[in-house]
Amino acid sequence: MFNPNNPFDSFFQIQREFDRLSNQFWSDVPARTTNARTSFQVNANDDQWRIDVPLAGVDPKNVSLEAAGNTLTIRAVEPKGQDREEYRYEQTLAIPQFLDLEKITASHRHGMLELTIPIKEAVKPRRIEIAGAPDDRKQLRTEERKELSRA
């Protein structure tokens, strides 16, 4: 039973109300139907991002890629066959600005479209040499040796 004088009951009542509103919100949002054919996976490392888009049964000649600004659009239209309906796929991806969309490469193997987008050289970490510290000690040792040889 809810007791308004107990602070724990009030806290849990607020949490229950939040959960109820959250569930109501998500149940009111129209569901987007997805299947395994339209999902994609992103793998990142220090040099590049690889995006894998499953397009099983789609001929690579029926796939097109369009880059505009930082947006990449993937389209595939497989015509109606004897035993299947026409297949249409379109996915638009917002590509982060640190990726070099000008150097994108694409391949299609075993029903998988593989996109490789390198990271821009300007944003890759680079080693910065610190001037002064090692050279000053070396020079100091050389001057000390000269003084010792004079004595």
Describe what you observe in this structure.
It is a single chain. The chain is α+β, with helices and mostly antiparallel strands and 151 residues long. The chain folds into two domains: 1-29, no CATH class; 41-123, Sandwich (Immunoglobulin-like). It is 26% helix and 30% strand. It has two helices and seven strands; from the N terminus they run αβββββββα. The chain has helices at 7-28, 133-150, and strands spanning 41-44, 48-54, 63-68, 71-78, 87-94, 105-109, 112-118. The strands form two sheets. It has a four-stranded antiparallel sheet with strand order 1-2-7-6, with no helix packed on it. It has a three-stranded antiparallel sheet with strand order 3-4-5, with no helix packed on it. β3 (63-68) and β4 form a beta hairpin. The longest helix is centred in the first third of the chain and has 22 residues, at 7-28. The chain is flat, with a radius of gyration of 30 Å. The protein starts with 6 loop residues before the first helix and ends with a helix. The relative contact order is 0.13. Mean pLDDT is 78; it is low at 29-37.
